[in-house]
Amino acid sequence: MRGRVKSTVAEERQASTRGRLARLCGIVVVLATLAALISLGTWQMQRLAWKEGLLTAIAERRSKPPVDLAAIEALVAEGGDIEYRTVTVSGRYLNNRERHFFATHQGRTGYYIYTPLELSDGSFVFINRGFVPFDAKEPETRKAGQLTGAQTVNGLARARLAEKPSWVVPENDLKKNIFYWKDLDVMAQTDGLPAGKVRPFFIDADATQIPGTLPVGGVTQFELPNNHLQYAVTWYGLAGALVVISGVFVFRRKTQGQ
């Protein structure tokens, strides 16, 4: 009889110990999850502040008077941000060396036309002249837009890419002259432009209309996705829900225990 009592007491103690461990593990899991949710919400708020600052900076740059290429190159040399800075440049288009970048514009699929502009000092800068639909890929289909002679281009400076932006982006199809990402070095090499003579950035031409209307300029996209506030509210909301559910659970346990 005494042996059975001792066994029962031991079992109750073990059960009590397991219960305390389970509650402790539950508390740790809840606190860790809560900390993760709050951290995610806070990170999204930080991203929101960064994105709003970026959009403000872009708006300010677009409103400033255009600068020349020397000013843009000085920024590049200093490691500064040249994105969306207004710029003006003069030169002569090498229309027979345009590169075609796969793109969509206003719901249509086609290409952005990147044409080297030869400058007075013998250097070159690639100009994103704008959009053409699929059936206007070949230059002979839009001869009126193949501007000749001295040209002045107003537009926005765009930084070069150091590498392919994502593994999901296809490789550039050099045989068909179709680029899926803006590899400046390859654009210059396949164009046969002298090494070291190509400026290390692009320029997006503005929407100034040209004869024949193609390419359509002014294709730079400014509407960057900014959903960080929604994400932050979601994460904070989940954290609040976890607190409420945990509180209800603890309250019921105490009530049942009483």
Automatic annotation (TrEMBL):
<protein>
    <recommendedName>
        <fullName>SURF1-like protein</fullName>
    </recommendedName>
</protein>
<dbReference type="InterPro" id="IPR002994">
    <property type="entry name" value="Surf1/Shy1"/>
</dbReference>
<keyword id="KW-1003">Cell membrane</keyword>
<feature type="transmembrane region" description="Helical">
    <location>
        <begin position="21"/>
        <end position="43"/>
    </location>
</feature>
<keyword id="KW-0472">Membrane</keyword>
<feature type="transmembrane region" description="Helical">
    <location>
        <begin position="233"/>
        <end position="251"/>
    </location>
</feature>
<dbReference type="InterPro" id="IPR045214">
    <property type="entry name" value="Surf1/Surf4"/>
</dbReference>
<comment type="similarity">
    <text>Belongs to the SURF1 family.</text>
</comment>
<keyword id="KW-0812">Transmembrane</keyword>
<dbReference type="Pfam" id="PF02104">
    <property type="entry name" value="SURF1"/>
</dbReference>
<keyword id="KW-1133">Transmembrane helix</keyword>
<dbReference type="GO" id="GO:0005886">
    <property type="term" value="C:plasma membrane"/>
</dbReference>
